Amino acid sequence: MESEEVLYLNDIFKGLARFKWLIMFIVFCFTLGAYVYNWHLSKPMYRSTVTFFLPPDPNQGQGASSPYAKLLGQGGGANASLDNYMSAFVNSNRLRVLVAKQVAYLYPQAKNLDEVISDLKFKHLKFIGNDTGVFEIEFQHENPRITFEVVKATLRSFDMINQELDLSPQRQLYIILDAPELPKAPFNTAKIRNLFFAFVGGLLFGIAIALVLDFFKPVSQKNELA
Q: By the number of CB atoms within 10 A of the CB, which of 21, 66, 75, 143 ranks highest?
């Protein structure tokens, strides 16, 4: 039984050896493609972050009566947490419209607000937080100035809605712990990691192709190449 397994593995390695140049070519193509994309085709991305504290309002209620639930224009329920409110707000259409209005001056060629919202790509607006009230908002964009202004506009949106709806007597709902900065250089987009994944992916794909080709190759040709 063990001898049969050894022979089977030996046949596999012989088959891979017969197509070693094909495997190497596929690995080269995958790696070269990843290199060209990461260093020449992909646009550099800039990142700006802000860390802030959102203290509870002692003059307001909890749950659905919380000012943060009203901030979103929705009821939260008794078990709703501040983290849930913030996550929903960062992903809400209300925030996107408010931010787009504040940074529209950076888009003099835009015909309407929808074009601004489309370019901002709010999927790159990330939120990290918990129920302790400390949150971090991060935004990535190809333009460093837009990246910086979107983060600031996101924070200002809290107070804009508060003043508009008179949700809380506090003039500013948040306390900035780490202010956003204008990014001076693109951040590391894991180019080396992507290159490594391309190499591994090319190697696995090349091995798979070699095994398939070797499986369908006539026995006579295998013996000639062995």
A: 66
* Number of Cβ atoms within 10 Å of the Cβ of 9: 10
Pick the closest to residue 80 from 64, 99, 93, 57 (CA basis). 64
Q: Amino acid identity, residue 102? A: Q
Q: In this predicted model, what pLDDT tens digit does every residue of 158-178 receive, in sequence order?
A: 778 777 666 556 667 788 899
Q: Strand, helix or coil at 173?
A: coil
pTM for the model stands at 0.65
Beta strands (DSSP E) in 73-212 are 125-129, 134-141, 175-178
Q: Residue 123's pLDDT is what?
A: 82
**What pLDDT, on the 0 to 100 scale, is given for residue 148?**
95
CA–CA distance, 31 with 101 (Å, rounded to integer): 42
